[in-house]
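Lab notebook, design round three. We kept the backbone fixed and only want residue identities now. Task for the bench partner: fill in a sequence for the structure below.
Input structure tokens:
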């Protein structure tokens, strides 16, 4: 029996950010793509994967948008209080997971990555579970990478063969990720993603090669590209 067929998991989606770089009138996860918000596309894609049981969405307590979405009424979607930083939001989701003993492993996925493909989720689970710590989807760097100095001139060219773009989902043992985030926050450490918290504890998460079109909507110009990828995904599944 494959790992996937015998695997049940919950996903945490941190969605309490304001997305200031989008220069929009609302957080970026509520901008529309093909008639639905980015967040709806993301959650629906996650819920459609067979092994995913619950999606825990960390939302700001002052958020006026989420409860108006049809997806918020789905019994498999659980709202928890989001925090100021991403790590705070993920930790809030982990507290819920632990209290309800939902799953031994937890996946964390960006709210603004609606183009995640099921093949990549399956690949992540299959390759990471035997690793016994966790791992992340990532894409090898393609462009020549330059390191700048404070004057914004080039200091050096970095060997790109050892560099990867970190993507999501990221998959870790629930208890381990909870401990890593809690410890990191208490110590005031810089936590940019879930893997960085695990790394700060001395562990080495596994890199799983994921698709580069698993785009995170960050800048206004990303919207058109994300919509193109979504249409392409729909055509491929028909």
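Proposed sequence:
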């Amino acid at each position: 029996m494959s790992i996937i067929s015998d695997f049940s998991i919950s996903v945490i989606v941190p969605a309490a950010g304001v997305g200031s770089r989008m220069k929009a009138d609302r957080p970026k996860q509520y901008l529309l793509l093909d008639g639905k918000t980015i967040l709806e596309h993301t959650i629906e894609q996650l819920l459609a994967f067979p092994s995913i049981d619950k999606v825990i969405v960390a939302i700001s307590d002052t958020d006026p948008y989420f409860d108006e979405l049809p997806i918020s009424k789905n019994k498999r979607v659980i709202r928890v209080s989001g925090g100021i930083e991403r790590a705070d939001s993920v930790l809030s989701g982990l507290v819920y997971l632990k209290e309800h003993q939902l799953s031994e492993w937890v996946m964390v996925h960006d709210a603004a990555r609606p183009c995640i493909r099921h093949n990549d989720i399956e690949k992540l689970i299959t390759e990471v579970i035997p690793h016994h710590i966790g791992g992340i989807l990532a894409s090898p760097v393609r462009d020549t990478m330059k390191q700048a100095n404070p004057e914004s001139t080039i200091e050096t060219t970095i060997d790109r063969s050892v560099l990867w773009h970190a993507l999501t989902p990221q998959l870790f043992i629930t208890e381990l990720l909870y401990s890593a985030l809690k410890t990191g926050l208490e110590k005031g450490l810089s936590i940019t993603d879930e893997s960085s918290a695990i790394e700060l504890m001395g562990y080495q998460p596994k890199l799983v090669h994921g698709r580069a079109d698993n785009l995170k909507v960050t800048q206004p110009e990303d919207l058109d590209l994300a919509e193109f990828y979504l249409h392409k995904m729909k055509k491929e599944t028909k």
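Keep this in mind before ordering anything: Helices lie at 38-47, 86-100, 118-128, 174-186, 194-200, 222-237.
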